[in-house]
Amino acid sequence: MDMIVGGPGAFIGGVYRIAACLDGEIELVCGAFSSDARQSLEMGAKLGLSADRIYGSYKEMIEHEHETGEMDFVVIVTPNHVHYEPAILALLAGFDVILDKPMCHSLEQARHLSRTVDETGRTLCLTHAYTGYPMVKQPRQMILRFDIGLVRKVYVEYQQGWLSHDNVNSKQTQWRLDPKQSGPSGCLGDIGVHAFNLAEYVTGLQITHVCTDLRSVIDGRQLDDDVSVLLRFNNGASGVLMASQICAGEENSLKIRVYGDEGSIAMHNARIPAGHPESYIEAFANIYRNFARTVRAKKNDEECSSNELGDFSGVKEGVRGMTFIETCVANSRKDNEKWTALKE
Predict the structure, then answer these.
(1) Is the confidence at residue 150, as pLDDT, over 90?
(2) Which spans in the chain are helix H?
(3) Looking at residue 313, what DSSP letter applies?
(4) What one-character-per-residue DSSP string does 227-293 give?
(5) Do 101 and 212 reside in the same domain of the chain?
(6) pLDDT above 80 for 10
């Protein structure tokens, strides 16, 4: 694999490198770890890569690695506004892609990226880490077996407190609150989309309509830091999604409750930074392993019924995530319309 960004000061890049290598099926062979060529070279050297496989830009890397044919897939861990272009370039160059969420800066970009995946026949994995947890996969299977009967009600929430004050000033904060880099939403696109993805993954249902209250609690912020969404699902169930980054004292508190007509399931992931569950890296490792085995099976034209193949979020979930974000943003701006349908 190659990595785009994930260099000095980037938390998630280190997590991804550990997760990718945990099962011994993936090797980091090259990278463009920073937009600063010197910093990229220094980071690559620390990781033990040869100088001729360390690049100053992702464009240079994709072009050169396409010529050599020595790389299989690209991992993109950039801010949201730098997801789309390197993903498109990598797909068109014949590489598979692992991409951080939300998939793109806009729904229009997400739809074009989806078409490119279809046209190239490549595989794209979207890193919704929480779907990698065994204790997330367990209730999903229970619900699909109708162990709790027909789903009637879903509550999902993701609360953080790191943006509770207006004096938070860091590189991670700045791009997340900048519409030019983050996209049309702040909190919703950063963590609310995780809750959305988890609700659909665990229940096996799709959200069809939303009624949204999108707020910027801290004065002066251009993007939301607090979100409440009423949900309607395609089986008639209803639900509530809450996401906030101004809940002082919370770290990464992700919880879901699902109620059926014969029982219920409740679970939470709460505690890499503080608040993430103990199996955080292993959850990513499950996603990377499943991605690697899927890519290998496609490459070798293998027929395999393993449950691991394709068991990760992909371009379809990416488009749905961007649809959810933009529909919620649009709905929150309407005074006279309660419900807005999700249209892909």
Answers:
(1) yes
(2) 11-21, 37-46, 58-68, 84-92, 107-120, 134-144, 171-176, 179-182, 187, 193-203, 280-299, 315-332
(3) B
(4) EEEEEEETTS-EEEEEEES--TT-SSEEEEEEEESS-EEEEEE----TTS-TTHHHHHHHHHHHHHH
(5) no
(6) no
Q: 73: which strand partners?
A: 96
- Assign residue 125 the CATH number of its domain: 3.40.50.720
pLDDT average, residue stretch 112-127: 97
Banded pLDDT at 276 (limits 50, 70, 90) = low
User: Cβ(30)–Cβ(2) under 8 Å?
Assistant: yes
Q: Is 225 exposed, middle or buried (0-12, 13-18, 19+ CB in 10 A)?
A: buried
Pair (116, 167) in one structural domain: no
Residue (of 150, 156, 129, 177) closest to 286 by Cα position: 129
Written as one letter, the residue type at 182 is: S
8/55 Cα distance (integer angstroms): 15
Q: What is the mean pLDDT of residues 115-137?
A: 95
- For the record, the structure tokens of 217 come out as 């609690």
Q: Tell me the percentage of the chain whose pLDDT exceeds 90.
A: 80
Question: If you ran DSSP here, which 8-state letter would residue 54 be given?
Answer: B
- Does 119 lie in the same domain as 199? no
Cis amide bond preceding 86, omega within 30: no
Are residues 244 and 227 in contact, defined by beta-carbon separation less than 8 angstroms? yes
Residues 19, 87, single domain; the answer is: yes
Q: Quick one: 122 and 171 in the same domain?
A: no
Check whether residue 123 and residue 173 sit in a common domain. Answer: no
Q: Are residues 122 and 172 in the same domain?
A: no
Q: What is the CATH number of the domain that holds 176?
A: 3.30.360.10
Judge whether 324 and 342 are in contact, CB under 8 Å. Answer: yes
Say whether both 108 and 173 belong to one domain. Answer: no
Range of the domain at 273: 131-277+320-341
Record the tokens describing residue 192, joined without a space.
């609310």
> How far, in Å, CA of 34 to CA of 54, rounded?
10
